[in-house]
């Protein structure tokens, strides 16, 4: 297990390197002159030149990359251009909101998706299975921004039960702020539930047709025992993988959903920053998201190695 | 001795011919019949054809000019003159929805085809040439695959700037890793076969082997993967437009129509319903088409389904 762990950790480094290079290049290749953006368009040529030197833009690209990397490592993420606030403060404020959204939506999606997927797999080809599969297809086809708009229409405009946007006020009490979470979480959960239910269904169907299930039944085990002790446990492995991938994507910012509800999370931060050409924010957020995605993938791989002994011992067999 | 080698080449040659013929069967009449006999496939094909029709003949089908302003009739509800109502500048929503189909079609077709081309051009050498080329190419695609697709699309649009064409490029890039992996997989599975070695023996160049011998076998899988990737492509383009990073106003894309509609939810609640409905219908339809196509093309699935019943 330790060898596997070390191996996976080592694989993280080239991925981080490639990703950081990609992000750095994105920013450098983006249109716009950072010096002009900092000083405004009425700055003189001398002022612009001095600003470029100050920002280190006169250095060759590889040196700028190294400087940029060292800044990130020291958590010096720069200041937002329009807002003139440190980027790291903005991220520190937005990230917990996104995390709350992601965790809530994922929890609901896991419970619902698992139940629906398991039910439809065990009762395969029945009416319930067809119903659930159709619901899944619908959940996958609906764009989240349209679902969000429809929900706002119903719950904010017509029924006036829930606020249409925002993230709640500080210190206003848990229940009050909960109202702001309901619609965004539901919007995300619908799609995630559909993805998970479909996946759980196909994973379970694959497992249930395996030989060892036939053996367990032949041994005389009760069906419930067969399902829980053998089928589900083995189906868990691919399911955990997809869970991890989906969660990483969510943390990457349910960008669209946050925009629909003007929810002050990382996703919305990025979109607003791009539309304002606020490159320090875009850069820092991309780094954060990529880092989270890689770390979550690593955690999933480790969990995978723990759950499936074949993965752990694969190397030593060679 | 010479007789033996001739017959060996002939049998390998005919094997290659069979595989090539099977690949060309992708568009044969039998496949189309099977596709249409399947319920889902039929519905999906109809919707897809409708989308293509709206994309190509939108100008003839739309009752009004989608950019024609009518400042006396802003945000009107649906009526016999304007079946879907009018938007905040008095433009007919039905016409704009019809014209929006062409943008979604561009995403679903152009972007996916572009992704397929690049996927093929990188997947073939990765599988055939192997070695460090394989490692480098697949490492790049794996890194891209690991990033959330919306985020990747946003990253690309950041470099290129907002716009319809850049959104199409971003969507194409998102679909490329899947195509590359698919083509690489197929290539790996047939690269050891004798007819490939025979081609190498006569002195064909690597690229000639890859394109004329290996590539036809990928066609079936490519077509299916394109049908599978299209709905996601359409959704991502719509999302980008919604965020303001794709087609810009006054272009009528379903995504940016929804974004505008959100500002008028209190005054014109029906505005936002129709573009979204169009997206759902098209995504559903293309998904059905992909499922039907898979069933029609894969003889095993048909026989398995028949056996189970």
Summed up, the helix count of chain B is: 12
Rg result of chain B: 23 Å
Biggest protein-protein contact in the assembly: A-B, 46 and 41 residues
Question: What's the rounded overall pLDDT mean of chain A?
Answer: 80
State the total count of DSSP E strands of chain B: 0
Rg for CA atoms of chain A: 24 Å
Number of beta strands of chain A? 0
Segments of chain A where pLDDT lies below 50 for 5+ residues?
none
Count of the separate structural domains of chain B:
1
Oligomer: heterodimer
CATH superfamily of chain B: MetI-like
Strand content of chain A: under 5%
Largest sheet of chain B: none
Largest sheet of chain A: none
What is the CATH class designation of chain B? Mainly Alpha
Task: Characterise the protein shown here.
The complex is a heterodimer of chains A (about 325) and B (about 300). Chain A is an all-alpha fold. Chain A has helices spanning about 1-30, 35-40, 45-55, 60-75, 85-120, 125-140, 145-160, 175-210, 210-220, 225-250, 255-260, 265-275, 280-305, 310-315. The mean pLDDT of chain A is about 80. With about 300 residues, chain B is mainly α. Chain B has one domain (about 30-310): MetI-like (MetI-like fold), CATH 1.10.3720.10. Chain B is built from 12 helices and no strands. In chain B, helix 4 (about 95-130) packs parallel to helix 7, helix 4 (about 95-130) packs antiparallel against helix 9 and helix 10 (about 255-260) packs antiparallel against helix 11 (about 275-295). The longest helix of chain B has about 40 residues, at about 205-245. Classes of the chains: A mainly alpha (about 325), B mainly alpha (about 300).
